[in-house]
Design a protein that fits this description.
It comes from Lentilactobacillus parabuchneri. The protein is an all-alpha fold. It has 20 helices and no strands.
Length: about 550
Amino acid sequence: MIDNNPNQSERSRDVMLSGSAWMTAGSILSRFLGAVYIIPWGIWFGNYFFRANALYGLGYNIYSFFLIAAIAGIPSAIAKQVAHYNALNEYGVGVRLYKRGLVLAVGTGAICALFLYFGAPLIDGGNPNVIPVLHSLAWAILIIPTMSLTRGYFQGYQQMAPSAISQFVEQLARVAYMLITAFIIMRLFHGSWVHAVSQSTFAAFIGAVAGLITLGVYYLRRREDFRSLVKNSSNDIHVEAKQLYQEIIAQAVPFVILGAGITIFMLIDQFTFFKIMNIATHYTYTTLSDLYAMFAVNSNKLIMITISLSSALAITAVPLLSEALTNGDQDQIKHQNSNVLALFMFVMIPAALGMAAIAGPLNRVFYGTNQQALGANILTFSSIISIPMGLFVVVSAVMQGLSQNKRAVKFFAMGTVVKLVLQWPCTYYLGAFGPLLSTGIGLMVANWLILRYLNRHFGFDKNMLDIGFRKITKYSLFMYVAALGTVYGLNFVFNLFSNPFGRVVSLIVTLAAVVIGGLIYIYLALKSRIADMILGPRSEGLRRLLKID
């Protein structure tokens, strides 16, 4: 594709790469902390581990839905609208948007927190242990909407570092509180495992406070810069308070539905899995709880590490696309859409296949040897399903950045109908794999509808994406074979001298497979120049550093 404005395209790619790097680093570190804590946490819970993890997941899925409703899509809407007005040199309007959004965020947070706290007995799914967990989570909903809104404000200025760093600090504080309370309750006082889980979920409030303080420090440091931009604005546009609220709400409602997309699918699993399996099998509640934990909590924690890569791309893409749309630059929109998809493929396909390759030892590192074969198989399947999940996060954000909110919601609704239709037969015949399969098919339908619409109305650089997809998939498969071969080879070697399925040995196998597979993929991507399409001139520097011709 010949770009009519190469300087603008290069600038946009640099902004996207820089923003994606910050958001990816923040997301991966946060998700990594959110997964690695499970090792000591599980050890301290002992025989209650799987039941505790299932209870944690049952409460967190409901909380996630309420949290998305409380946030109301306002942060992403603010990021989009602030970027829109900033492109018009109307920074003052963006500040007023933030202040009005703050009022909405505080209000929706308080309403949803009260509803979750006092309505917990109505939505516990018949499990009274869920009630104290929901009570503890309600406190976080008071704080998180304000924190998320402030992140959206920074993102509107395409400043991703504050969001990424506050996200990491939030997770660090949350995990620290979880581990400290779990150790005290379960090991020192030998207390109730339900109480320990409730404290682990209350950690969301502790993390939110830490994240909000971090953002406050960043804002104070950059306050003069913001004031200078407002002072030098064009000030040609005056928007009434009522119109500001209307803009925020009009943009926010679709963000709620689409932002809750994966959570809605998980809630469908939560409220149908036990009922369907009770008809299909004669398993006890404890066995069903263990199965639910394996696919909805255990594997989900790990695949969310790779899906967080998509979230980073999505957050970066929205303000950039909004700016291009405001400027009426159709070529730039087409270029941005192609860049987003290419970067998604470059990162997500090898990440998903890589996790599938190391599913066995990785599952043992985090969850021990309890039902290790089934757990590993579920993680392998979940890793593949993470590709359509991640793609939905990205393409739905692209639609929102291009103000195609209603159509995006419509396409998601169609995918949800497919999920609902397939949920019963898939779960009945495939057990714990069934909900994952119905999720994958439902999201693939939604993704196909969105991509078809984007192609018809905005276009893609098909040649670039076709070449990129074929080469990235081929190199990812090479990486997968190498990583899987490393896993089997090391398992065979360790079997000669010790237990190959212990946690320490599994960690060594996992790290070795990641390094070998990752180096092969990086080498092939740089050697073939496919990385140049994604990373631009940075690739040449990497080739010199790694001495690749």
